[in-house]
């Protein structure tokens, strides 16, 4: 339902290239495919139950891994790269325009050590 409303809004935009960012309330792999057909890029967070049968590490198993652990797969029906990583919580994102490279380590603040890591 939310994806069709978003598509209806995007159709009204002028004919030029856009990059759309959506939250997990609206995003599905079908929406990602539709954006690509419209010639738009999207970066979207996804809920675990909207990944069809993409074989990523389950969120429960990912939570037990150290911060920064990552898994990625190419979801073949929509031709979308899906990335899941463990941060403060488990995050799943689909950045089809960019993929997963290059990887970089982010500086984080440690409350316990009172410095950046």
Automatic annotation (TrEMBL):
<protein>
    <submittedName>
        <fullName>PiggyBac transposable element-derived protein 3</fullName>
    </submittedName>
</protein>
<dbReference type="InterPro" id="IPR029526">
    <property type="entry name" value="PGBD"/>
</dbReference>
<dbReference type="Pfam" id="PF13843">
    <property type="entry name" value="DDE_Tnp_1_7"/>
</dbReference>
<feature type="domain" description="PiggyBac transposable element-derived protein">
    <location>
        <begin position="3"/>
        <end position="112"/>
    </location>
</feature>
<dbReference type="InterPro" id="IPR052638">
    <property type="entry name" value="PiggyBac_TE-derived"/>
</dbReference>
<dbReference type="GO" id="GO:0043565">
    <property type="term" value="F:sequence-specific DNA binding"/>
</dbReference>
